[in-house]
Amino acid sequence: MSENELTTVPGVANHATISLAEAAGVLGIHRTTAWSLHKRGDFPVPVLKIGSSLRVVRAHLQLFLETGEPVTLPFRASDGSRSIAS
């Protein structure tokens, strides 16, 4: 799937992020399955909580679709760990 195909999915707005439910549709899974995967930490791309919304970066979803490999974000917490949980 090309980037253009992802940006033209019917019913999905052309923004930098899409909702978790829209990402589920692109992946061909039900939105409740996507939510369950997210809650378990097994969704294949990072899920951002923005206000009360769960969002997925369109470019991350595209990368997953192209490679089949889960996408992770490299980050370091202030204590040097790789987790934001205390």
Any overview of this molecule?
By secondary structure, the chain is an alpha+beta fold. It has a single domain, classed as Orthogonal Bundle (Arc Repressor Mutant, subunit A), CATH 1.10.10. Helix content is 38%, strand content 14%. It has four helices and three strands; from the N terminus they run αβααββα. The protein has helices at 3-7, 20-27, 31-40, 58-67; strands at 17-19, 47-50, 53-57. It has a three-stranded antiparallel sheet with strand order 1-3-2. The radius of gyration is 13 Å and the shape is globular. The model is unreliable at 81-86 (pLDDT under 50).
Features:
38% helix, 3 strands, globular, 86 residues, alpha+beta, disordered C terminus, Arc Repressor Mutant, subunit A
**Number of helices, where a helix is a run of at least 4 consecutive DSSP H or I residues:** 4
Rounded mean pLDDT is 81
The profile of the biggest β sheet is: 3 strands, antiparallel
Q: Beta-sheet strand percentage?
A: 5-15%
Number of strands: 3
List the helices and strands and how they pair.
Elements: H1 3-7, E1 17-19, H2 20-27, H3 31-40, E2 47-50, E3 53-57, H4 58-67
Antiparallel strand pairs: 1-3, 2-3
